[in-house]
TrEMBL record:
Its main location: membrane. This is Duf421 protein. InterPro entries: DUF421, UPF0702_alpha/beta_dom_sf. It is found in: Cell membrane. Residues 79-211 form the YetF C-terminal domain. It is a multi-pass membrane protein. The chain crosses the membrane at residues 6-23, 30-47, 53-76. It comes from Acididesulfobacillus acetoxydans.
Length: 229
């Protein structure tokens, strides 16, 4: 039994490492050749972990070969537009200026119900309001509304809003992030005083405290800690 556990942990660690080396993309964002590599790796790892009669190296070597093959194809798709078109395909226009392109739906085996569902998910339920709908190579549908139907942006009103930046976390789940204090321009005394303004006794009662570029502090109480106390 111990041998099975050790073999499984080794293969698990190897698969995690291989997937990390292949890149940080979700399953829905993988190109076809990348998805094939992931599926085959999972199958190859499962066999030697279940059968101790199969040498461990018989599972490790094919996984490393698939890693090399996947990395090689990714390199070619990155460097060559022609290789990228062959390996990943090319985007397809499904809606052109408010008109559904039926031949492209048929060619890509993409039914009308799925297309309408994707439009609803993009908050553009009316086909007539769509300038272009493009089926991307990863299977996602990009929707570009017509100019008069798209949401307004500050540029439409000749407004230049200030850069809001990213909020800086100061306390997370009762633990202070001192490394962020210099960047935020705060200190312990200031933070303690601000937390007390929210009727909290200390950082241990804070779920999240963060400060934005304007200097506004957001504080949310950790109710679980309050109940325990």
């Amino acid at each position: 039994m111990l041998i099975v556990v050790v073999r499984t942990l080794i293969l698990y660690a190897l698969v995690v490492l291989v997937l990390r080396l292949l890149g940080k993309r979700q399953i829905g964002q993988l190109q076809p050749f990348e998805l094939v590599v992931v599926i085959m790796i999972s199958e190859l790892a499962a066999v030697p972990s279940e059968d101790v009669g199969i040498p461990l190296v018989s599972g490790i070597v094919p996984i490393l070969v698939l890693l090399l093959a996947g990395a090689t194809l990714s390199y070619f798709s990155l460097k060559s537009e022609k290789a990228r078109a062959i390996l990943c395909g090319t985007p397809t226009v499904l809606i052109d200026k408010g008109r559904i392109v039926e031949r492209e739906l048929e060619r890509n085996r993409y039914n009308l119900s799925d297309l309408l569902e994707q439009l609803r998910l993009k908050n553009v339920p009316n086909v007539a309001d769509v300038e272009y709908a493009i089926l991307e190579t990863n299977g996602e549908v990009s929707v570009i509304p017509k100019a008069e139907k798209r949401p307004s942006i500050p540029e439409d009103f000749q407004i230049s809003p200030k850069d809001e930046g990213l909020p800086i976390p100061l306390v997370m789940d009762g633990k202070v992030h001192i490394e962020n204090w210099n960047q935020a321009g705060v200190n312990a005394a200031w933070l303690e005083a601000e937390i007390k303004k929210h009727n909290l006794q200390g950082v241990e009662q804070v779920l999240l405290a963060s400060i934005d570029a304007s200097g506004t502090l957001f504080v949310q109480e950790n109710r679980r800690k309050k109940i325990l106390h």
